[in-house]
Amino acid sequence: MAPDEGGGRKAPRGRPRSEAAERAILDAVVALLEDGVPLGEVSIERIARTAGVGKATIYRRWCDKEALFVDLLRDIEPPEPVLPGTSAREDLVVMLESLRDRGVAQRTSALLYHVFAQMKSYPKLWAAYHATVIEPRRLIVREVLRRGVADGEIRDDLDLELVNDLFIGPMLLRSVMRPDAPLDDDLAQRIVSAVLDGVRPGS
Amino acid sequence: MAPDEGGGRKAPRGRPRSEAAERAILDAVVALLEDGVPLGEVSIERIARTAGVGKATIYRRWCDKEALFVDLLRDIEPPEPVLPGTSAREDLVVMLESLRDRGVAQRTSALLYHVFAQMKSYPKLWAAYHATVIEPRRLIVREVLRRGVADGEIRDDLDLELVNDLFIGPMLLRSVMRPDAPLDDDLAQRIVSAVLDGVRPGS
Amino acid sequence: MAPDEGGGRKAPRGRPRSEAAERAILDAVVALLEDGVPLGEVSIERIARTAGVGKATIYRRWCDKEALFVDLLRDIEPPEPVLPGTSAREDLVVMLESLRDRGVAQRTSALLYHVFAQMKSYPKLWAAYHATVIEPRRLIVREVLRRGVADGEIRDDLDLELVNDLFIGPMLLRSVMRPDAPLDDDLAQRIVSAVLDGVRPGS
Amino acid sequence: MAPDEGGGRKAPRGRPRSEAAERAILDAVVALLEDGVPLGEVSIERIARTAGVGKATIYRRWCDKEALFVDLLRDIEPPEPVLPGTSAREDLVVMLESLRDRGVAQRTSALLYHVFAQMKSYPKLWAAYHATVIEPRRLIVREVLRRGVADGEIRDDLDLELVNDLFIGPMLLRSVMRPDAPLDDDLAQRIVSAVLDGVRPGS
DNA sequence: ACTTAACCGAGACGGTACGTCATGTCTTCCA
DNA sequence: TGGAAGACATGACGTACCGTCTCGGTTAAGT
User: Fold this and answer.
1) Which of A71, C65, D48, D64 has a CA between 20 and 30 Å from the CA of residue C31?
2) Do chains B and D touch (3 or more CB pairs under 8 A)?
3) Would you report the helix, strand and coil content of chain C in percent, each value rounded to 5?
4) Domain check: are D33 and D108 in the same one?
5) Chain D: residue whose CA lies nearest to C189
6) Is residue A194 less than 8 Å (CB to CB) from chain B?
7) Å between C8 CA and F1 C1'?
8) Contacts of B30 (CB under 8 A, 6+ apart)
9) Does the distance separating the beta carbons of D117 and C190 come in below 8 Å?
10) pLDDT tens digits, C11-61
11) CA-to-CA distance for B191 and D56, rounded, in angstroms?
């Protein structure tokens, strides 16, 4: 049986790629962004210069600046939160807290801010991020909601995709699109409560 | 007699700027974007070539590519919606419809899509858009909510900024950040109802 | 033609050209060159700026930068020397002194130096200078030589054009093409003597 | 063992410069000038376009347009003449013939004409030309004259620098500064004879 | 130990765009 | 109507980066 990576893969002749170079490249990008270099000025040429690496060494690994950033994001993205599972409310609060954390991080780190700001300009990067980060989390929330409906915590006459957006949307709006808005500690709590209870009096 | 435009405005010496050139420039940008030219390839040089205009004529008017896009956005942005004023619910639906319309437009028009996608990468553009478009609309919603509270349509124990986000967030999430999600005709209605009523059973 | 030169001519409708503007332009060029501005940087634009004059006002008077310099040179060129007429030798010395003077002036004045250095690059300027300055002086020397032959001061078996060059050439070489060579007070004397007497021993 | 090229010469890292590009650039300049393009229109941009070469490839080799022309001149300048050494008179005739040849060439070739015309406007070019071409030839003539004095062909009571100018000046005047004057075959002979013998009757 | 082949850094290559400046023409207001 | 002010299309300037391509020199795996 093929030991690891499958079938008739050719034996890789020649000198193997240096992990050191790869790390140097990624580190250089991070360093540049943390030094506040505008992302538009993070050119391949400059990365190579900073990393002390030939340009070809970068192009050998990533065809695009986008592709490089995809890998970079994967390094940066915090792990998915662990849900307590005690109730839909608690689980939703934890998920929203995780979103809030990222929002806080984005305001702190020039790196995160710029990468996220740019992401929609790079379709492949955006698609990759959507597939590997956003969609899995939506799936988790969807499951939380489904259990919430089953447990009688959530109405069963609503489109769960819509409900998903009702919880996630406000937090994203706050954390990503309104960089001046406060991100208080109890924000997740308040959003979940308000969406659950409604904003109509006596509801 | 007021000389022309009021105050102590200086008499503009020399040949006045040609409106034709200005229009040609803006039209060229629109044309390029509508032809699907990636926004990163919309260089000043290319705009000038397309518009049949000297580069200096562009730089004379806008110091940045950003600044140009600010003006472009102003041309494109649809007018603020007219609120019926019959009830907070109706007003909110109209505001959200207007957001939905822009979402639909962004999916149709490559121009809008790319400009919005890029906007956060250009801080000045983003700030200008925030100040001239987003904040005024938030202000309108804030006023609608205030009246809603006064009329007893909305609870008076909630932070209205939060409520604002509860209504706007889901629609923005759908229309801007989830380009694959459907934007049904009744979406605004459903969001407003759900946020008003809450998603807890019996609420 | 200059409107102020036409005797009892009525002011022919319209504003006459201002002498002040013309003088301001020429003065500006002189000032720039004397300030050591490299002649390549003496653009029409800059002249206009320095003179406080519109570009069109310059182009209205001179079609070229060359044409402007032609007029400028005429202002600068010293008057033709007055020959004593006592002998060919004396007359030649005076002519050569005059050449030497200009050579000294060229080393002193950046203006003169640069204008002469550039002149051959501007065919019309060069032709004008040749016709109005060089050729008249050659003519004078030709006449001096002719009288010298008649008076027996100069051999009659030589081409006078060649003799002309024998006297003028060495002084021009010294003063114009060898800017480091000394221009001693007695240089004209020594050249005239040596050319007259020859450099062969016993000649 | 000597490694290759002698001293501690550094090993040249990176891709070596292409001789083909260099030749293409110089050829392009020559071609442009020979096509009668005014030297002022021989822009770096145009050279690059004509040579099918990137602008950077030119700037990598020459910092200036001047520096480029210095190299160009070195290619063009004919070799120093071989002196027969039979007598000072013969040697001087050969040197002057060589000057005359260049004069003829300058009238034939637009390239040479313009380059020489412009040279004094480019101080570095002029200095380089002076040092590498003019001064060496003056040195040769100086040596010829010294031997002439020793051999009794030339008076020993004259400043040899002056004598140098007496021979060279007339030919330069004819060939460089009087482009309309004839450059007959026997011109060198006649100048040398006249300067040796003097123009005074019975000298 | 010796090939072989892909790696490495460095940097040159033909391009394209940058933002500035000068050209010569034009337009508009002021005197 | 002349003049200043300055906008206009054009095009060169010198720099930076693009992505590709040599170079000379490693660095393993497979003979």
Assistant:
1) D64
2) no
3) 65, 0, 35
4) no
5) D162
6) yes
7) 20
8) B72, B111
9) no
10) 444 556 678 888 899 999 988 888 878 777 889 999 999 999 999 999 999
11) 59
Q: Rounded CA gap, C199 and D157, in Å? A: 9
The count of structural domains within chain A is 2
Identify the DSSP state of A78.
P
Q: Are C145 and C162 in contact (CB under 8 A)?
A: no
Q: What distances in angstroms separate CA A118 from CA A111, A114, A177, C29, D128, one per listed residue?
A: 11, 6, 13, 52, 53
The highest-confidence range among A161-165, C114-118, D107-111, by mean pLDDT, is A161-165
Range of the domain at D82: 76-197
Amino acid at D141: V
CA distance B148 to A137: 34
What CATH number is given to the structural domain containing D40? 1.10.10
Interface of A with B in 50-69 (CB under 8 A): none
Higher pLDDT, D123 or D195: D195
Looking at the complex, does the CB of residue A127 fall below 8 Å from at least one CB of chain B?
no
Q: Where are the beta strands (DSSP E) in chain A?
A: none
**What is this structure's pTM?**
0.77
CB B203 within 8 A of CB A198: yes
Query: How far is it, in rounded angstroms, from Cα C100 to Cα D165?
Result: 14
Contact in structure between B194 and A158 (CB atoms under 8 Å): yes
The C-alpha R_g of chain C, in whole angstroms, comes to 21
Nucleotide closest in space to D15 (CA vs C1'): F23
Residue A202 in domain: no
**Residue A189, token pair as written in the block:** 């709590």
CATH of the domain at D84: 1.10.357.10
HEC secondary structure over C126-174: HHHHHHHHHHHHHHHHHHHHHHHHHCCCCCCCCCHHHHHHHHHHHHHHH
Q: Give one DSSP letter per residue of C11-33, joined into a string.
A: P-SSPPPPHHHHHHHHHHHHHHH
Q: Are A178 and A101 within one domain?
A: yes
Chains C, D: CB contacts under 8 A, how many? Answer: 137
Tell me if chain C has a CB within 8 Å of the CB of D110: no
- Statement to judge: residues B190 and B116 lie in one domain: yes
Instruction: From residue C155, give the alpha-carbon distance in Å to each of B71, B109, C145, C160.
Output: 86, 94, 10, 10
Mean pLDDT for the stretch of residues C156-165:
97
Alpha carbon B118 to its chain centroid, in Å, reads: 13
pLDDT of B184: 96
Q: Of the given ranges (B9-13, B111-115, B189-193), which has the lowest mean pLDDT?
A: B9-13
Compute the distance between CA of residue A81 and CA of residue A98 in angstroms, rounded to an integer.
7
Which of these, A96, C39, C199, lies nearest to D156 by C-alpha position? C199
Q: List the B5 CA – F24 C1' distance (angstroms).
A: 71
Q: Based on the domain organization, do B94 and B180 belong to the same domain?
A: yes
Instruction: State whether A88 and A151 are in the same domain.
Output: yes
- Mind spelling out the 3-state secondary structure of D81-111? CCCCCCCHHHHHHHHHHHHHHHHHHHHHCHH
The beta-carbon neighbor of D162 closest among C194, C198, C201 is C194
Establish if B2 belongs to a structural domain.
no
The pLDDT of residue D133: 83
Contact D179, D127 (CB under 8 A): no
Same domain for D52 and D90? no
Distance D15 CA to F23 C1' (A): 5
Q: Do chains A and C touch (3 or more CB pairs under 8 A)?
A: no
Instruction: Indicate yes or no: CB of B162 within 8 angstroms of CB of A194.
Output: yes
Question: Measuring CA to CA, how many Å separate D55 from each of A55, D45, D49?
Answer: 21, 6, 8
For residue C80, tell me if it sits in a domain.
yes
SS3 C53: coil
Give buried/exposed letters for B26-60 (b at 16+ CB in 10 A, else e). Answer: bebbeebbeeebebeebeeeebbebbebeeebbee
Residue with tokens 């060494």: A57
In a domain, D149, yes or no: yes
Kindly state whether residues B89 and B56 are assigned to the same domain: no
- Residue D12 has which token pair? 């040249």
